Amino acid sequence: MLNNKDRILSQKLFQSERKIRLRWLVGLSALPLFGVVAAFGIAPDTEIQHIQTRTVVEQLALPSMQLASGNKESFWREERIQRGDTVSALLNRLDVNSEDVQSFLSEAQHAQALRQLKPGKTIQALTTQDGELLSLRYNHGGDSMLLVEKRGDHFKTSEQPLPLERQVEMKSGRITSSLFAATDDARVPDAVAIQMADIFSTDIDFHRDLQRGDKFTLVYETFYNKGELVKTGRILAAEFINSGKVYRAVYFQGQDGRGGYYTEDGKNLRKAFLRSPLEFSRISSGFSTARYHPVLKEWRAHKGVDYAAPTGTRVKSTADGSVAFVGRQNGYGNIVIIKHQGNYETVYGHLSGFANGLRKGQRVNQGDVIGYVGMTGLATGPHLHYEFKVAGVQRNPLSIEVPVAFPIAAGQKGEFNRSTQPLMARLELLRGTNLAALD
Questions:
Q1: What angle do CA 152, 158, 164 make, to 5 degrees?
Q2: Per-residue pLDDT averaged across 123-136, rounded?
Q3: How far apart are CA 309 and CA 373, in angstroms?
Q4: What is each CA distance from 392 to 180, 251, 340, in whole angstroms?
Q5: Least buried of 2, 138, 206, 248, by fewest C-beta within 10 Å?
């Protein structure tokens, strides 16, 4: 029994000594990591206490700083436009002298950009020390800027293109209430959201098919000038998951210079007819063989679809064709009828007005604006009455199968794959990632 106790005690002492040795080893090995280790080499018999020092001061000849003969020192100044600002007030804050203010107001203020000053935008002015205005730049929006330059005693105005830097943005979001609410949460510009709806409009009816939980991912162009967003470009690739079904689109421009959106295997997303002639609205009355007419107060067939929308909402041609009729017609009020290839015809009624210059016989392309929502004719509120005819017979535009456009030609398939694979890879990267939450 005692032997066992002695053996246990000796083992504990051995373990304790071993731990102490290990701690020393760890401590020594850690010194290079957490401390500073230095080594110095000194030659034998080197004297280090009586080293003489001497200060040397030399005069260096510097070139004289002079302005070139005839030149005036000038400075760029910048001011942000405030609500209620006038051109005169801005020039005064830019320290322009009174003579040039008066000359500028009489000669350059006629420029259209200066008549509508936009709060938040900036104006830059190049002036001399005594306040002479040499040049003025105003980026008023879009991809050009107003340039005003002094030539002698007069000011010359011109519009100059802005140097733009192209970037590719990637955004992702989820539908909780509406498309625009989701794109706002993801900080996607409205112009890009409308593009997305147009791209998928032949497969998804955004008036009635949108579901809570639907997801979208976008790859699109943006253009910046000096770090400021100037405009958005086109969508390069997009994915929309509607009720669990995945729809994908990628942009490709062919050898003929015409671009369009295709599936990843080269099928054309553009169908011969759009599902809806409006970008966003709600269906107030569907296609029916018996509907109680709200104005005539009787039951009768409703051979079209009514889209409720605010007065002035743009109405688009759902397919390429030619205008067969534009004017006023009985209960339809202001109406446009378009004939399309293959015995197809579309009708747009109750319009408040027509697109500028629209006339009978005119060719229109799919997506062209042909008129605006109104309530002319027999209508109780602003809406669009839309009909789809095949060989003169009205058919339900929400259920009829429409022809598709041609896919990528076999000769361009290789170029299509090379061009679109990087864009599809970006969509794969975005899948399942909510970038709106990561920003």
A1: 125
A2: 91
A3: 7
A4: 37, 36, 12
A5: 2
Nearest-5° angle of CA 275, CA 276, CA 279?
130
Q: How large is the C-alpha radius of gyration of the chain?
A: 37
Contacts of 97 (CB under 8 A, 6+ apart): 130, 131, 132, 133
Residues near 174 by Cβ (< 8 Å), separated by ≥ 6?
182, 213, 214, 215, 216, 434
Signed CA dihedral, 175, 180, 186, 192: sign only: positive
Phi, psi of 99 (to 5 degrees): -65, -45
CATH number of 75-161: 3.10.450.350
Asked if 320 and 341 count as a contact pair (C-beta separation under 8 A), the reply is yes
The region of weakest confidence among 12-26, 69-83, 144-158 is 12-26
- Over residues 141-182, the pLDDT tens digits come to 777 888 999 888 888 888 888 888 999 999 999 999 888 899
**Domain ranges for the chain:** 75-161, 165-270+431-438, 282-395
Q: Where are the alpha helices (DSSP H) in 94-145?
A: 98-107, 112-115
Report which of 276, 331, 329, 333 is spatially closest to residue 306, judged by C-alpha positions.
276
Contact 334, 327 (CB under 8 A): yes
Pairing of strands 165-174, 154-161: unpaired
Residue-wise pLDDT tens digits, 229-248 = 888 999 999 999 999 999 99
Total-model pTM: 0.54
Element (H, E) at 302: strand 299-302
The CATH number given to 282-395 is 2.70.70.10
